[in-house]
Design brief:
D-Maltodextrin-Binding Protein, domain 2, alpha/beta, five-stranded mixed beta sheet, 2 domains
Length: 327
């Protein structure tokens, strides 16, 4: 080997060592200024409250403010696209949903971001179980009554969702597939008008986050048929799961994970993961959100990737069957 080659190898080695040292030094001092968590929903809602609760604990543990910025719109696409283009320095994070990471790539013909290419997973944060509800004009109190009733309507039974291709739409579609019933989908621009349509009798059913429908259920204005998930929820202890009622394979909880822009230094991601796990494992934090029917739970970065892949496989079959596409 010539002396020129040896010199080049030496320079390459030195550059690698310096880059590693710089990265480690950056991670040790991180964060040295405020960190922004972008939330793809409006202020005041359950996900916003979740992000603010997490931000408060991360701020206390790091000594730097973690600030929530709300960027609703486009089934989380507005916020996701913004964070995908942000500097990969750990100072802009995204409270991604299952829609952002698993569902949108399946249903949108064109997407302004690529969740696999553009994000580095930090940790799972929470899961929000769904509940299937019907209006009082629907003469069914249990799943075993509802399925025959839907079949008797011969395609004239309508369910509402908060938008075409949204996880709540897919949850009802999954139910239709597993129960082998024919239903009409009526998409609305948001959860509130979807629930309002069921209350008014314009549609007969919807699948919703438990927290959103709970006041109407407890007031007797909506009837809970079952939890669309693997277990009952503390907030509605008397409502069985669909599996308990005899319909297996309908598990459609919405989940949320913290992610960063893709090229964020691994040391920063690891540091964030450690702090997020600590914050989420706080008993007071768990109790607060359990009362809101949200199950807090952390994971490794790879755990988020694995969950995303499992969810895509599940929803891909539903998307193909019903040809669900959004322009």
């Amino acid at each position: 080997m010539t002396s020129g080659c040896l010199k080049r190898l030496a320079w390459i080695g030195l550059a690698s060592v310096l880059a590693l040292a710089s990265s480690l030094s950056f991670a040790e001092s991180y964060p040295s200024r405020p960190v922004k968590i972008v939330v793809p929903y409006t202020a005041g809602g359950p996900v916003d409250q979740l992000a603010r609760g997490l931000a408060e604990r991360l701020g206390k543990s790091s000594g730097q403010p973690f600030v929530v910025e709300n960027k609703p719109g486009g089934n989380t696409i507005v916020a996701a696209s913004m964070v995908a283009k942000a500097p990969a320095d750990g100072y802009t994070l995204f409270m991604a949903s299952s829609a952002s990471l698993a569902v949108n790539p399946l249903v949108y013909r064109k997407l302004a971001y690529d969740p696999d290419r553009d994000f580095a997973a930090v940790s799972l944060v929470a899961t929000a179980p769904l509940v299937m509800v019907v209006g009082n004009s629907t003469p069914a109190t249990r799943l075993k009554e509802l399925i025959p009733y839907i079949r008797s309507r011969e395609g004239n039974f309508a369910y509402a969702s908060n938008g075409n291709g949204n996880p709540l739409h897919l949850a009802c579609a999954l139910f239709g597939s597993m129960a082998n019933v024919d239903m009409l989908h009526v998409p609305y621009n948001g959860t509130a008008p979807a629930v309002a349509s069921v209350l008014a009798g314009d549609t007969q059913m919807t699948c919703d986050i438990v927290l959103s429908s709970m006041p109407q259920i407890k007031a007797g204005k909506l009837r809970a048929i079952g939890i669309v998930g693997p277990r009952r929820v503390e907030a509605l202890p008397d409502v069985p799961t669909l599996a308990e009622e005899g319909l297996l394979g309908v598990d459609a909880a919405v989940w949320f994970a913290l992610v960063a822009p893709a090229a964020t230094p691994p040391e920063v991601v690891a540091k964030l993961n450690k702090e997020v796990v600590k914050a989420i494992d706080d008993p007071a934090m768990k109790a607060r959100f359990s009362a809101m029917a949200m199950e807090l739970g952390s994971s490794s970065p790879q755990g988020v990737v694995d969950l995303t892949n499992r969810e895509r496989s599940k929803w891909a079959a539903v998307v193909r069957k019903y040809d669900i596409k959004v322009e």
